[in-house]
Write a structure and sequence with these properties.
With 248 residues, the chain is an alpha/beta fold. The protein has 2 domains: 102 residues, no CATH class; 141 residues, no CATH class. It is built from 6 helices and 12 strands. The strands form 3 sheets. A 6-stranded parallel sheet has the order 1-2-3-4-8-10. The relative contact order is 0.10.
Length: 248
């Protein structure tokens, strides 16, 4: 709450990235999700970047918040505040109003998971939709995603090769790219990063190259990077020294 108050005073919008949780994990008690969504509702001056590998659970989980008997940390004296959170959920589910401080993203480490998760992401009404292409484990063609029997350019929101909007009506606003880090990191080819950057530039999509990873390769050679995660942008090839944010 202190961050929210300070953000209002400073007239800026800090980005909050709860990276160590999956807010749509079906194993999480629904009361916890109710508490989390209440926190998001009560901090309108903070932008929440919500990442999940389980976006297919979104409608069912948010619907269950509407039926939650009581949250775990708020007393019944705060019930009216929880009521407002439920109202936010109802409007969101009905696509009447999207939470203005929520960005929705998913992890796509290769083409298989891009084809699987991106269509689910595009089903969710969101102010900003983003991809976390990390750890990047293979090439990804974001202009040619399998989606219900047709090919989708998820960066433009159009059917691939057709030049017309797809039925979902959505597109990707931002891509984060990074190779794997740590002991035993799997290889990341800089060409895979370079290709996604090119796709984003062609579509006018904002792109943030986070790191090359601890096991980065280029032209058949392992890169000798000083930064242990390959996260020093000055060590990247010039054409992927890119750290952009969406203008929202």
């Amino acid at each position: 709450m202190k961050w929210n108050r300070q953000a209002k005073i400073d007239n800026n919008r800090p980005r909050i990235f709860p990276s160590l949780c999956d807010w749509l994990d079906e194993k999480v008690p629904i009361e916890w999700l109710a508490d989390f969504l209440k926190l998001i509702h009560d901090t309108p001056n903070l932008d929440w970047l919500l990442l999940s590998k389980r976006l297919e659970n979104w409608r069912e989980r948010v619907n269950r918040v509407l039926d939650a008997k009581c949250s775990t940390i708020y007393s019944t004296s705060d019930w009216n505040n929880l009521y407002e959170t439920r109202q936010m959920c109802r409007r969101w589910l009905g696509e009447q109003a999207v939470p203005k401080n929520v960005w929705i993203g998913t992890s796509v480490e290769n083409q298989e998971y891009a084809d699987k998760r991106i269509p689910e992401l595009l089903k969710i009404p969101a102010k900003v939709r983003f991809l976390s292409c990390e750890p990047l484990l293979g090439p990804i063609d974001l202009s040619f995603i399998e989606n219900d029997g047709y090919k989708l350019n998820c960066l433009t929101g159009e059917q691939a090769d057709m030049g017309r909007p797809c039925e979902s009506g959505g597109k990707i606003d931002w891509c984060i790219i990074g190779g794997e880090s740590g002991v035993g990191a799997r290889p990341c080819n800089v060409e895979w990063i370079r290709d996604i950057v090119k796709q984003c530039k062609a579509a006018g999509t904002q792109c943030f190259v986070k790191q090359a990873g601890s096991n980065a390769w280029l032209d058949g050679n392992r890169l000798k990077l000083k930064h242990p995660k390959g996260g020093d942008v000055s060590e990247f090839p010039k054409d992927i020294q890119l750290r952009e944010f969406p203008c929202h």
